[in-house]
Write a structure and sequence with these properties.
It contains 12 helices and 11 strands. The protein is globular and about 50 Å long. By secondary structure, the chain is an alpha/beta fold. Helix 1 runs parallel beside helix 3. The strands form 2 sheets. The chain has a 6-stranded mixed β-sheet, sandwiched between helices. Strands 3-2-1-4-5 form a 5-stranded mixed β-sheet, sandwiched between helices. Strand 1 and strand 2 form a beta hairpin.
């Protein structure tokens, strides 16, 4: 049994799971998420994690530590992504975690984040052609497409739901950024988009009108561009507090769901695709799959 935690730009997440080497499948035992927004207020001019964000993150990890005492764990992994990657005081965070909890924080590159997200996402979903995985996070978006020889074309885009909420861009600017960051991606004749991350799983929950999130129902669900546009227009016209009354929207997602959907719609348009397949298995699963393959 393994535990994997991720300090993302918008939230801290935990997965406790078993890996069956014979079947190659992962069975989730426990999931948890805490909205901590470690990347709040960070931009090109300010690359410091605030003291408040450090405190929120440590509090979340301390809560995870209490949960983990219930399980006979083989190993614990703690990763950090975009916001911590960019932070000038990342070593302060690393030191606080090591002193308080005894865990070693591993800050992964955008490329490794993309590889692990891809590894998790493509498990257990049916698709036509080559998979292209999109992971819309709070501070960045990872794009991964398998090549002809199973080599991966990877791009990590400086475009995330929290970042876009704090620093809005019109669609033309988003498209310009995509054309700058993705021009060398070689798309095959047949490929399917697979999406992971909070924006995409929340959109699936919206489609299913889930009052309580259900990972099993979300896994493998298809979202059409027309459905996504409908949710985008509907939620854009509402205030964040009003969105919390919509089944599928959870606390901490009500403000950043609209910019997240804006990114998703622009990516679908750029890729010339009419739908995306939802995968509940992401970076956290990818870490366990990678360990199981070794």
């Amino acid at each position: 049994m393994w535990a994997v935690m991720d300090i993302g730009t918008n939230s801290c997440r935990l997965l406790v799971a078993n890996y069956d080497r014979e079947t190659g499948k992962i069975k989730a035992v426990k999931r948890a998420l805490r909205v901590t927004r470690i990347g709040a207020g960070m931009n090109k001019e300010n690359r410091l994690i605030s003291s408040e964000a450090l405190a929120r993150t440590l509090q979340a990890l301390e809560g995870f530590s209490l949960l983990l005492k219930q399980y006979p764990l083989k190993k614990v992994f703690l990763l950090a992504t975009q916001a911590v990657r960019e932070a000038e005081n990342q070593e302060e965070l690393r030191g606080i975690i090591k002193t308080s909890l005894g865990w070693n924080l591993r800050i992964i590159s955008g490329e490794e984040e993309a590889r692990l997200s891809y590894l998790g996402a493509v498990q257990g979903v049916e698709m036509k052609g080559v998979p292209a995985v999109i992971d819309i996070g709070g501070g960045s978006t990872e794009f991964v497409l398998a090549g002809e020889k199973q080599d991966l074309q990877i791009r990590s885009l400086p475009l995330g739901a929290l970042r876009l909420w704090e620093n809005p861009l019109v669609d033309e600017k988003v498209q310009l950024l995509l054309h700058q960051e993705l021009p060398k991606i070689s798309f095959p004749p047949a490929f399917s988009l697979v999406g992971v991350g909070g924006t995409i799983t929340t959109t699936a929950a919206l489609k299913l009108a889930l009052v309580h999130y259900d990972a099993v129902k979300v896994q493998g669900l298809k979202l059409s561009i027309s459905e996504i546009k409908s949710f985008y227009e509907r939620l854009k016209a509402m205030k964040p507090k009003e969105r919390l009354q919509v089944p599928g929207i959870t606390l901490g997602r009500e403000d950043i769901i609209v910019p997240g959907l804006q990114i998703l719609l622009n990516l679908l348009s750029y890729c010339g695709q009419k739908e995306i397949i939802v995968s509940e298995q992401d970076l956290l699963y990818g870490v366990i799959y990678a360990q199981g393959l070794n």
